[in-house]
Write a structure and sequence with these properties.
The complex is a heterotrimer of chains A (151), B (121) and C (174). Chain A has 151 residues and is mainly alpha-helical. Chain A has 5 helices and no strands. Chain A has one domain. In chain A, 65% of the residues lie in helices and 0% in strands. In chain A, helix 1 runs antiparallel to helix 2, helix 2 packs parallel to helix 5 and helix 3 crosses helix 5. Chain B is mainly α and 121 residues long. Chain B has one domain: Helix Hairpins, CATH 1.10.287. In chain B, 70% of the residues lie in helices and 0% in strands. Chain B is built from 5 helices and no strands. In chain B, helix 2 packs antiparallel against helix 3 and helix 3 runs antiparallel to helix 4. Chain C is mostly helical and 174 residues long. Chain C has 2 domains: 79 residues; 61 residues, no CATH class. Chain C is 75% helix and 0% strand. The chains are: A mainly alpha (151), B mainly alpha (121), C mainly alpha (174). Chains in contact: A-B, A-C, B-C. Chains B and C meet through helix 1, helix 2, helix 3 and helix 4 of B and helix 1, helix 2, helix 3, helix 4 and helix 5 of C.
């Protein structure tokens, strides 16, 4: 159980900083094909922004924990499901697993279909990594000892 | 001899970091220091792979033009692509090993390997 | 490669790796490990591997420090100094022998920054030339991990997912 931070400076600055971190994380994931970055780093930055919220505002129920609880406890499998789902759609389209040129999108040439497949894979990986980071944080912080709290 | 070593500095640093991390991962008595040694081991291997793909005068492998592309201007993208996933998998396994260490502490009330081996279960 | 930048960075990396282990206070050791990760990220960004540098800076200097500190505060909140480490001489002998064996094979490896090593001359032009035409993705690293080698990525994603689940199972309240 982590209590909200004592200092109001930390709380106010976190409130300002967390939306920018999340926007930056979404930018890095979506622009992963045009600049260094991609799904892995974007997911870790998103998870880090949620961890900052939990460290500043505590892990109990209250303000700022809704998204962290949802991402860690409900969306753990969504990333892997998205990635495997894209692969299965390629199987349905007639090619091998994760061969994006066989996705069933009308009106696009083969290289545009591969671009779309890469984008969906990046989003899937980002969700998976963010959910794992926050889930490990929750596991480590909610595990309380019986004879603790001397400090 | 010195010129041989100076031109392959990455391998020297890799050998040192790898053996240093491995020695303390095996012989130190504290569990957290063992995990620090494991982290040094993992990052030393990633370091070796990334520097094996470096090229003199090479830049970030983002290729915008569809005309004639000269491959010697860009660093080798394959080792960096493989090591990208390796880093994130490394931190996930670090999380699992830290969870194991916390469970061990809960049962034995110590993180010292010698005391755990001596304790009467 | 320009040695004026790489030699001080490599020296700092070695010094921080040495002190992360030799330091007896565990919280200080964890912070020095964060410095070590950050210096590694600088070095990789200097070598042109921007993706790996970015990831190491976020993951090493951010996430792993948080996990280590959480585990430390859960286990030993009072005594964070380890006692003296006994040097085990068989271990040192094995260490020195393997070090000499590794250094003896050093001439077979390519020079740092070599343009004609087998990895740089044969394999890398293939991906660099094909990526923009076949996938419309300027970032070659993204197209390698998500398209050309997507099987590796999906299996590693499964490993990350399993690690998250394993932590949840290990640290349940009971």
């Amino acid at each position: 159980m982590i209590h909200p931070h004592d200092s109001p400076i930390v709380r106010h600055l976190s409130r300002v900083l967390i939306p920018f971190l999340q926007l930056f994380a979404v930018y890095v994931v979506v622009h992963g094909q045009y600049s260094p970055g991609g799904g892995f780093v974007g997911g870790v930055v998103f998870g880090t922004s949620l961890i900052l919220g939990l460290l500043a505002f505590g892990t109990g129920q209250g303000q700022g924990q809704g998204l962290a609880h949802t991402v860690a406890f409900r969306w753990e499998g969504v990333g892997l499901l998205l990635l495997a789902g894209v692969g299965t759609l390629c199987l349905i389209g007639g090619a091998e697993f994760l061969n994006y040129h066989a996705l069933l999108l009308p009106g696009m040439e083969a290289s545009a279909r591969r671009w779309t497949g890469i984008l969906l894979a990046q989003i899937g990986v980002g969700i998976d990594v963010a959910a794992t980071a926050v889930a490990i944080f929750f596991s480590l912080s909610l595990f309380n000892e019986r004879d603790d709290d001397h400090a | 001899m010195l010129e041989l070593w100076l031109s392959r500095l990455n391998f020297l640093v890799f050998a040192f970091l790898f053996l240093w991390g491995l020695y303390f991962m095996i012989t130190h008595h504290n569990l957290i220091k063992k995990l620090i040694g494991m982290y040094l081991l993992q990052t030393s291997i990633i370091f070796l792979f990334v520097t094996l793909g470096a090229k003199t005068g090479g830049t970030v492998p983002v290729v915008f033009d569809t005309g004639s592309i000269r491959p010697e201007l860009y660093t080798n993208p394959l080792p960096t692509a493989l090591m990208l996933t390796a880093i994130v998998v490394g931190v996930s396994t670090l999380g699992v090993s830290l969870s194991l260490a916390v469970r061990i502490y809960r049962h034995y009330h110590t993180l010292d390997e010698d005391e755990i081996a001596r304790s009467p279960e | 490669m320009t040695l004026w930048v790489t030699i001080p960075l490599l020296l700092l990396i070695v010094v921080t790796a040495l002190s992360a282990i030799l330091m007896r206070d565990l919280i200080g050791a964890v912070f020095i490990l964060g410095c070590y990760s950050f210096l590694l990220a600088l070095l990789w960004a200097w070598f042109g591997a921007a993706d790996v540098g970015f990831t190491e800076a976020v993951v090493g200097a951010g996430l792993s420090t948080v996990f280590f500190l959480l585990a430390l505060f859960l286990t030993t909140p009072r005594e964070t100094r380890t006692h003296h480490h006994q040097i085990s001489w068989p271990g040192v002998i094995v260490l020195v022998t393997s070090g000499l064996l590794l250094l003896a094979s050093m001439e077979d490896l390519p020079v740092l920054g070599d343009l004609l090593s087998p990895a740089n001359a044969r394999v890398s032009p293939d991906y660099l030339l094909r990526s923009i035409q076949e996938t419309r993705t300027p970032s070659v690293v993204a197209s390698i991990i998500m398209d050309y080698r997507s099987m590796d990525t999906i299996v590693e994603t499964a490993v990350i997912f399993t690690a998250g689940i394993a932590c949840r199972f290990l640290l349940r309240k009971d």
